[in-house]
């Protein structure tokens, strides 16, 4: 595999080249030069699309569900990563944040960019009031 010289995406032609390279690298293992190149290209594509296309805020849960479907996986396949079927359900309902280890494992399994996965932690954290040691998401909901 020839590594692409990674540069800023400035136009649709650059975007097409980056997307073609992403397809070539799609199954590259995390932590390899090809996996690192894939992550960098994801970030560049996302930055270009953010600047040129108003897609609104990305939905990390929808992205996880989409990638599960694309790969022929089910919620059950996330249990070894998240911990239990209930925990997976809570995660996909937006009621549970993820740990760094879980984010890394989801990134490796689903090839979802880490920065998008970190939004799950941010969204779940916003449901908890106070200093983060306060009531859980269910209590916070009842209080509102």
Quick overview:
The protein has eight helices and no strands. It is mainly alpha-helical and 144 residues long. The radius of gyration is 17 Å and the shape is globular.
Tell me about this structure:
The chain has helices at 12-25, 33-52, 60-70, 79-82, 85-92, 100-110, 114-126, 137-143. The protein contains eight helices and no strands.
Features:
disordered C terminus, mainly alpha, 144 residues, 8 helices
Largest sheet: none
Mean pLDDT: 80
Percent of sequence in beta strands: under 5%
Fraction of helical residues: 55-70%
H/E order of the elements? HHHHHHHH
Distance between the termini: 54 Å
Topology:
Layout: H1 12-25, H2 33-52, H3 60-70, H4 79-82, H5 85-92, H6 100-110, H7 114-126, H8 137-143
Helix pairs in contact: 1-2
């Amino acid at each position: 595999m020839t590594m692409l010289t990674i540069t800023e995406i400035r136009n649709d032609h650059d975007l097409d080249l980056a997307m073609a390279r992403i397809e070539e690298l799609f199954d590259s293992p995390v932590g390899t030069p090809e996996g690192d190149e894939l992550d960098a290209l994801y970030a560049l594509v996302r930055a270009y699309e953010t600047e040129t296309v108003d897609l609104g805020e990305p939905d990390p849960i929808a992205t996880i569900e989409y990638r599960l479907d694309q790969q022929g996986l089910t919620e059950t396949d996330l249990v070894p990563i998240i911990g239990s079927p209930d925990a997976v359900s809570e995660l996909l309902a937006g009621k549970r944040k993820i740990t760094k280890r879980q984010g890394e494992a989801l990134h490796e399994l689903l090839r979802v960019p880490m920065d998008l996965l970190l939004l799950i932690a941010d969204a779940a954290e916003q449901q908890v009031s106070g200093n983060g040691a306060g009531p859980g998401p269910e209590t916070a909901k009842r209080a509102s």
